[in-house]
Amino acid sequence: GAGVSQSPSNKVTEKGKDVELRCDPISGHTALYWYRQSLGQGLEFLIYFQGNSAPDKSGLPSDRFSAERTGGSVSTLTIQRTQQEDSAVYLCASSAAGTHQETQYFGPGTRLLVL
Amino acid sequence: GDSVTQMEGPVTLSEEAFLTINCTYTATGYPSLFWYVQYPGEGLQLLLKATKADDKGSNKGFEATYRKETTSFHLEKGSVQVSDSAVYFCAFGQGGTASKLTFGTGTRLQVTL
């Protein structure tokens, strides 16, 4: 399909382990976003990539969280030394050019459970 | 700070009832406004949007009008169906260097026969 894809769909890990979450945006979309959906917190912005510009990391909750986007396409969100409060659904979205009027297209999410 | 406030759920309606889900926002400038919907077991998808004041977004019988004077974007549908049962999120996108979306907490709608 031509939508945003994410992997894995589910991830169970032990507290203290590192995890990597992957996002494949819609082909040709220059903007890519990561959000987190958790109980009690709703949907929170994490990080935004636009073309070759420096990413907007203003939503990352701690320095345990990082993300990269290679070749302007695939992105990986890494959480180091996971904590139980990191349990959430991590959503990736992309849009054509990153303007605020555009529709963002969301992937199905990765459900992360930290035991 | 920037935020979205939407009515608490769950909202339970009978089929063919009128639906209103209130949404107000706090943002600087002239944001774009969105309603996203999450059907059971599915991902988040756009329902409708409006990008400037007094614009009306519409889709699948749902409507919402961008009211800058009241900073609101209330979602309405004249006759809901069981298939409309879902979680509805109000959101805005702000211009500038980051076009991230700021979301409300979501309103769960349950439509019964």
Description:
The complex is a heterodimer of chains A (115) and B (113). By secondary structure, chain A is mainly β. Chain A has strands spanning 5-7, 10-13, 19-24, 31-38, 42-50, 65-69, 75-79, 88-95, 105-106, 110-114. In chain A, strands 2, 4, 5, 8, 9 and 10 form a six-stranded mixed sheet that branches. The model of chain B has no long low-confidence stretch (mean pLDDT 93). Chain A binds chain B through residues 31, 33, 35, 42-45, 48, 56, 58-59, 91, 93, 95, 98-109, and chain B through 31-32, 34, 36, 42-46, 49, 51, 89, 91, 93-106.
Q: What is this entry, summarized?
A:
The complex is a heterodimer of chains A (115) and B (113). Chain A contains no helices and 10 strands. Chain A is mainly beta and 115 residues long.
The structural class of chain A is: mainly beta
Calculate Rg of chain A over CA atoms. 13 Å
* Model regions low in confidence, pLDDT < 50 over at least 5 residues of chain A: none
Sketch the topology of chain B as an H/E string, one letter per element. EEEEEEEEEEEE
Order of helices and strands of chain A: EEEEEEEEEE
Oligomer classification: heterodimer
Number of strands of chain A: 10
Taking all residues together, what is the mean pLDDT of chain A? 93
Share in helix of chain B: under 10%
- Tell me the radius of gyration of chain B: 14 Å
Question: How would you classify the helix and strand content of chain B by structural class?
Answer: mainly beta
Our measurement of the CA-to-CA distance between the termini of chain B, rounded to an integer number of angstroms, reads: 41 Å
Average predicted local confidence, pLDDT of chain B: 93
Instruction: Describe the sheet with the most strands of chain A.
Output: 6 strands, mixed
Shape of chain B: globular
Most extensive interface between two protein chains, with residue counts: A-B, 26 and 27 residues
- N- to C-terminal distance of chain A: 33 Å
| Largest sheet properties of chain B | 6 strands, mixed
Strand runs of chain B, count: 12
Proportion of beta-strand residues of chain B: over 45%
Number of helices of chain B: 0
